[in-house]
Amino acid sequence: MTKITTTGLALIALATAVAAASAHEQHGHSSYSAGEPGDPNKPSRTIEVEMSEMAFKPANIEVKRGEQIRFLIRNGGKEDHEFLLATTTENLKHAEVMKKHPHMEHDDPNGVRLAPKKSAEIVWKFTQTGTFEYACLIPDHRDYGMVGRITVK
Question: pLDDT tier at 5 (50, 70, 90 boundaries)?
Fold first, then answer.
């Protein structure tokens, strides 16, 4: 009986580890809809993005296809906030995962989570035309308006 219990516990632990890895993988990307990570040694221009409760400034950005942008992102708010660059569909899907894992940290080149008064940089090359967004996917933040748009022409 002890051997069966030990085996059962091992299988439960393995299943839990796989589920956690899968949840993390859902927000990871092997390719990105809005482009690709840029070369930090070659940014073409810098755009400063200020995060606060519950807004981004600027809320709309235009770039050219092929342009590389260095986003200087600052959290001027009193809460943690995120900047996650993707399509609306991708961000909505990721927001559902964030509801289950609200303290998820991002280790992707298209996103960052910042504590109040902190800043970070993301360098991004826009290789696709279209409309994309940057959003804070901490539960409820996007719903309260914390979303910005990027138009790539």
Answer: very low
pLDDT in tens, 49-90: 999 999 999 999 999 999 999 999 999 999 999 999 999 999
Rg (CA), the chain: 18
Q: State how far the Cα of 32 lies from the Cα of 40, in Å rounded to an integer.
A: 18
Side by side, the strands of the sheet bearing 130-135 are 60-63, 147-152, 130-135, 81-86, 111-114
Catalogue all structural domains in the chain, each as residue range(s) with its CATH number.
Answer: 30-152 (2.60.40.420)
CA dist., res. 91 & res. 10, Å (int): 35
Phi, psi (rounded to 5 degrees) for 50: -100, 130
Top-ranked range on mean pLDDT: pick from 33-42, 49-58, 103-112: 49-58
- pLDDT for the residue numbered 43: 77
Helix (H) or strand (E) holding 21: helix 2-27
- 131 Cβ partners below 8 Å, 6+ apart? 149, 150, 151, 152
What does pTM read for this prediction? 0.77
